[in-house]
Design a protein that fits this description.
By secondary structure, the chain is mostly beta strands. The protein is 0% helix and 56% strand. The chain is built from no helices and eleven strands. Strands 2, 4, 5, 6, 9, 10 and 11 form a seven-stranded mixed beta sheet that branches. A four-stranded antiparallel beta sheet has the order 1-3-8-7, with no helix packed on it. It is elongated, with a radius of gyration of 15 Å.
């Protein structure tokens, strides 16, 4: 599975951005898809996750402002970010947790990362 993220950019505080991440390859093995972010000098943190059945979870700082969703084909994940704050400035990464039940040595689980996309929120 390969992931390609897009949609980052600069915005003023209070504005909105929508990130997208498209998966290719063995997309049938994808289970959950997530967005993480890493601000300068800080550790990477989970922002939001969406399961294959559409259930979602969010980090406390983004609850009520961000919405994660998956496309109908389940191979794309979106992050709609509203009411952005300067503290949301970070490189955002999409990830996919995969499980390959057909692997020769038995079920294989893996986490795949996309390239980061920079979100800059100015005050």
């Amino acid at each position: 599975v390969q992931l390609l993220a897009s949609g980052g950019g600069g915005v003023q505080a209070g504005g909105s951005l929508r990130l997208a991440c498209a998966a290719s390859g063995s997309i049938s093995t994808i289970n959950t898809m997530s967005w993480y972010r890493q601000a300068s000098g800080k550790q990477r943190e989970l922002v939001a996750v969406v399961a294959r059945d559409g259930s979602t979870n969010y980090a406390d700082p983004v609850k009520g402002r961000f919405t994660i969703s998956r496309g109908n084909a389940k191979n794309t994940v979106y992050l709609q970010m509203n009411s952005l704050e300067p503290e949301d400035t970070a490189v955002y990464y999409c990830s996919a947790d995969t499980i390959d039940l057909q692997a020769p040595a038995g079920p294989e689980v893996a986490r795949v990362w996309g390239q980061g996309t920079l979100v800059t929120v100015s005050s």
